Each structure stands twice: as C-alpha cells, then as structure tokens.
Amino acid sequence: MLGSMAASRSPLSRLFTVLLAGVLAGLVLAVAALPGNLLLGLSARAALGSYAALPASLKTPATPQRSYLYANDGKTLLTTFYDVNRTDVPLADIAPVMRQAIVAAEDRRFYDHGGADLRGLARALVANVKGGGTEQGGSTLTMQYVRNVLKTDPTRTAEERAAATDPTVGRKIQEIRYASALDKNLGKDEILDRYLNIAYFGSGAYGIAAASQRYFGKPPAQLTLAESALLAGLVQSPDAYSPIDGDKNEALARRSYVLDSMVATNAITAAQAAQAKTEPLTLHPTAQPNGCTAVAQGHDDWGFFCDYLRQWWRSQPAFGATVAEREQALRSGGYTVITTLDPKIQATAQQQATKVYGYDNKRALPIAAVQPGTGQVLAMAVNRHYSLADNPAGQANHPNTVNPLISGGASVDGYQAGSTFKLFTMLAALESGRTLSTGFDAPAKLPTRYAAEGPGSCDGRWCPANANPDWMDGYRMMWDGFGRSVNTYFVWLAEQVGQDKVVEMAQRLGITLRADSDAAFAKNNAANWGSFTLGVAATTPLDLANAYATVAAEGTYCTPVPVVSVKDASGATVPVGQPSCKRVLYPDVARAATDAARCPVGQQSAFGQCNGGTATGVNGILDGRPVAGKTGSSEQNSTETFVGFTPQVAVAGIAANPDDPADSVGSAVQTKVIDAVARVIATAVKGQPEKAFAAPSKKLAGDPHRPVERPTVPQTPQNQDEDRLSPLERWLNRRG
C-alpha cells in the first residue's frame, strides 16, 4: 500500500498506533491548537533530519525501470524487459490535473508542511485512539515516498526492505526525520515527481507512466480529469480499487472522493467535479510485453532477433561484471535500445521464409540479413513461432521453438552450406598470389591425396565428382568455376593452396565451427580436410551472410551487432554497439572474389569471363542492379543454400531440417531459396542509390588468354619462418 494506511488494520498495526500515540501524547492537544507557522517550525525541529545522513537511495533513487527495445526506426516497439513494470517520466510530461489529483487524494497540505505534517498526524492519532470508525493515516506524500523507496531499494537486504514497513514507533519517527530532510533539500515538485514515479497503482503498474498505459493506453500527459481522479484514488488500496483486478464500483467511489477533495483544494470547481462524476468508466487496458516471447501480437518472428540481442547483451561488460548482473540490468535498468532490426526487411524475410515452407513444416528456411561495413543485423527470419507453447506430439521444434535456428548456439550447431564455402577457397588462392584466370581442366571426378573408402572413393582415395558433368567439366578458371560451381576445380584449387589455409580463411571471415567434430578437425587436422571447400562443416545463415558481407565491404570484417544505440535511464549513451571492424583481406582480393561472384547470379564480370551461373534469375529480380552471390547444395541435397550481396546488404538462407540432418530437402527447393533471398535483397536496397562493385586490378585478374597454373611452393627451412605470416599480415606490416 502506497497511500494512506489501509482502512482495515491488523492488531499489530493498532498496537503501533497506540504506542505512537503514547510517544506523541504530549503533542496531540497542543499541536491541535498551534498556529500554522509555529506548527511548521515545530515540524522541522522535531524531525531534525540530516540530508547528508540519508540513505543513498533516497538522495538518488535506484528504482527498477522497464527497458525498451525498438526497431532501427526508433519507433517500432519490439518488446520490453522488466521485473517491475515502471518507467520514470519528468513532471512536465504528467498532466497538471493528475498532479493536482494525487495531492488532493493523499496529502492536501503537501505544499504547506515540511515533509512531516504534525497537524495531520495529530488529527489521525486522536481519531484512531478514540476509535469508532475508519482509521486515519497521517502519512504525507513525502513520508510515503520514503517508505516505498526503502522497501524496494535493490541495494538493501531483504531484512532492511521489510523493516521499511514495520509497525514500530522507531520506524515511524525515522520516516518523519527522513521526510523532513528531503523536504528541506528538494523542491516540492521534485518530491511530487519522485512520488508519482514510484507509487503503485495496481494491476502490476508502478509509477504514473505504467499506470496510464495499463488502464487507459495513453501517456500520462494526456490524462483527463476523470482518469486522473480514478488513478489517484487507487494508491490507497491498489489491489482492492483496481478496476481491472478489483472492484469497479469501489474504484468509482474513490474517484468521486478524489474529485470532491480537488474541489476542497480549489484545484477544480464543483461543476467540473459533477461533470467528471457522470463520465462512464472507459478503460483501454494495455498489457506491457515482457521478454522475447511477448513481442507484439502477430510479430512473434521478432523473438529470434530479440533472443540474439539478449545473448549479445549478456556478453557486454558495460552492463555488469557477471552474466547475472547484465541480465538484471536489462530487466531493471530502464534502458532504451534502438536495435538494428529493419521492420521492412524483416517482414519480407519472414514472408519469404514461410512462402517456401509453412509454419507446420518440419523443414525450415532460416534467413539472415547483414549490413556490410557495420555488421548490423537487419533481419532474422524463419518459418517458426518464437514461443514456449507446446508442439503437437512428435514435433520437436515446429511450429514453436525458442532455439536459435538462425544465429546458432545452445543446441544449434548449424547446417551444411555446400558450395558457398568455395568462396573461402577462392579467397585463399587469390591471397596466395593466384589470379582469377588460374586455369584447370576439371574432370568429372578428381582423385585426391586424401585416403577414403566407400562410394566416394577411387582406389582408396577421396574422389569428389561434379554434379552436372556435361555443364561443369572442362577447362575452368575462377570465374566460370565459381559461376558453374565446379566441384573438381575447387577441390584441386584447395589442394594447391593448402586446405588449412582455406579453413583459416573461413574462420577469419567469421565462420564459427560450433559442432565439436568440426572444431576438432579444424584444430588438429585442417591440412587434410579435403571436403571443407564443398561446405561439409556446419554453419548458420547469420555467419554465412556476415562472411559474404566482409567481401562486399572489400575485405573489412565487422562483428555482427544487434544494436544501433543504447541509452540508460538518465538518457546517457552507453558506449556499446559501435561497429567493431577490422581489415582481414586485401581490398583487391575482395574485389576479385566479388568479380567472380557476379557469375552465379547471371551478371557479367568486369573482364567478361562469366559464361553461366546456378542462380541466373537473381539478376532479373534485382532489375540488373549490381549483385553477387553463390548457391550451395550439400551431399544428396540434404540442404540447399543461397547467399547474395550488394555493397549495401548481404543475405543468406539455408533450407534444412533442424531436427534431422538426414532428411534431405531435395534439389527442387533450390530455386525457391534463391528467389526468397533475392527478394529480401530487393527490399533491402529499394530506395537506396545504386552502387557498383569496384573492379579488381588487371594484375589479380591475370590473363584469361594465357592462364598460368602455379605450382605449390615447397616448404624449406629457409622459408618456413616467413610463411608463418599470412600474405595479408605481411602486407599490413608494410603499411605500418
């Protein structure tokens, strides 16, 4: 109870009243007859409160507040986080009639007393000792504020918080002293502001901002006289008077009482009060969302991005020394978070994901969109409801799940992305000094040096094959080898470069090997991971989109980030969320890889060497706008992948069965995945200026008419030390 003392009191409370009456018995009769000025002086002298000795929470309130998450437009509310539904607002943003109503309801002499109203206290004591009716409280707004700060102060122990409401004479006298000290050092408006932001109005709403939204669905600046009177009447007994959870008739009766009190304080006229009393009780209850599973109705797809942000938040030292402290900060720190989520891109991604597979389909199409040069995550969609609701029998993760199907983590290692990993082989080759015109007569099958047994082997060696020999076999360079996705060309190229260099390149661009078996192979036997270039390692759409975004940004890798800005409850900007970027590729190497990546999507390289692609329809969807990308089909079409990019956005989608990797999605879905990703890109770039890709140097392109196959450089004691540095590291060292 934040208002006057409850109408019905326990025996212990009655005993407290008698004890306090005894302590102040000598004051009662005298106080009743004292003139106002003398009474105010007595109040100040009796309290003798020292502001310096006040608990820190009374001088600087540490009240928990709700945190808000908005989309990147700063307007679209995704969800909120809170333990206590409270948001502080300045007094200027509270309707004047609401301020008048709370004073009239709880403390008519608020502007006249010194924090502790001895006249009101004496009157209440006399009435309570005499008995015969409803007991009176005598607590001022300032005293109520003291009590409620101390009983909710998160820096105090549970015992100390409980003591703030103990029915003892000592506690009441301390409350009077604290209130007097506050009154002498804070203005009345400041005290009123603090009170209105901490008072409990019932139905889970703490503070006037939460109460105004909870009951009437509006900010407190827009409250009417009748609405203000109703809210002011709730604080005396919030649970009993709440028109949502309590007695509506009692709420209306309290509203009338407050209106009459406002007339008595000359805040309104009797005619205004009479008119307000005739107004019907019209509520617009608004339940404030709390957490990722409570995002706006119809937008539960936002939950996956929300969960990704929450995991990011838990890793940021700026919000606390431990994960628990950071989690608590999110739920009580009153932060305003502008996220990177773009509502339009997200809507298209969700529409496309569910167009390929419905919510009830066991297969899924997780899609992620990332902004090159910043790492901002623009969209995360999948044909699942982010929900803790039960699924039908036998359906583990559909239609409902809270697993990170798009970003990975927890139990989600990811999915094989097939030939999209050929990008890393091409980059490693270009970085080693090979050119785009590096040629090889790619056979239908390529015997390798890696030992293997079974259907994919040739005389005891791993022997990868081309998926479409008639279209893929023959003399290839990086351009058409990438455009036509020629397996044997890239396995050969990876052997020339070194498989360990290819694995390192993928990790350098942000591919996280979450599967234990993948991580172990990369650590202990990367040089012999011959199939890595064919995308056998598990990855996620987010990792893959960001890796390709690095190439789109001409070799600048940026750590994925889900926020644009974060402000604390005071409005100060928290130094988190800024792009964290570093150069990981030569710009010319990235440009060369992009030039080859124009081939798969039906566009032409700067050197005119594209002669076929696996996703040529993308060019039409983007209306000829510069775009690049790569398809990927894993073995037996267990997954189908497409990742595309422009200078402004990179988008990846992987069709898979998250619960059963053995369930092949089939090749027929590839065109749908390509179409879905391309349409997300189209939405992302709509209205943005068209940007062209920079062409690579002729040196790195090489001479397509005189291709040169470069032999592997043998390792000798003389060059081993130098080779420990990558070409990029040596280049960066030269640049200082």
Automatic annotation (TrEMBL):
InterPro entries listed in its UniProt record: Beta-lactam/transpept-like, Glyco_trans_51, Glycosyltr_51/Transpeptidase, Lysozyme-like_dom_sf, PBP_transglycosylase, PCN-bd_Tpept
Listed GO CC annotations: outer membrane-bounded periplasmic space
Catalytic function, reaction form: [GlcNAc-(1->4)-Mur2Ac(oyl-L-Ala-gamma-D-Glu-L-Lys-D-Ala-D-Ala)](n)-di-trans,octa-cis-undecaprenyl diphosphate + beta-D-GlcNAc-(1->4)-Mur2Ac(oyl-L-Ala-gamma-D-Glu-L-Lys-D-Ala-D-Ala)-di-trans,octa-cis-undecaprenyl diphosphate = [GlcNAc-(1->4)-Mur2Ac(oyl-L-Ala-gamma-D-Glu-L-Lys-D-Ala-D-Ala)](n+1)-di-trans,octa-cis-undecaprenyl diphosphate + di-trans,octa-cis-undecaprenyl diphosphate + H(+); Preferential cleavage: (Ac)2-L-Lys-D-Ala-|-D-Ala. Also transpeptidation of peptidyl-alanyl moieties that are N-acyl substituents of D-alanine
Top-level taxonomic group: Bacteria
Pfam families cross-referenced by the UniProt entry: Transgly (PF00912), Transpeptidase (PF00905)
Keywords: Carboxypeptidase, Cell shape, Cell wall biogenesis/degradation, Glycosyltransferase, Hydrolase, Multifunctional enzyme, Peptidoglycan synthesis, Protease, Transferase
Residues spanning the signal sequence: none
Residue ranges annotated for the Glycosyl transferase family domain, each copy included: 77-262
Annotated GO biological process: cell wall organization; peptidoglycan biosynthetic process; proteolysis; regulation of cell shape
Annotated Penicillin-binding protein transpeptidase domain residues: 368-674
UniProt-listed Gene3D superfamilies: Biosynthetic peptidoglycan transglycosylase-like, DD-peptidase/beta-lactamase superfamily
Region (Disordered): 688-736
Compositional bias segments (type: Basic and acidic residues): 700-709
Keyword Methyltransferase attached: no
A molecular function GO annotation: peptidoglycan glycosyltransferase activity
PANTHER family, alphabetized: BINDING PROTEIN TRANSPEPTIDASE, PUTATIVE-RELATED, PEPTIDOGLYCAN GLYCOSYLTRANSFERASE
Protein family: In the C-terminal section; belongs to the transpeptidase family.
Stated name of the protein: Membrane carboxypeptidase (Penicillin-binding protein)
Source species of the chain: Micromonospora chokoriensis
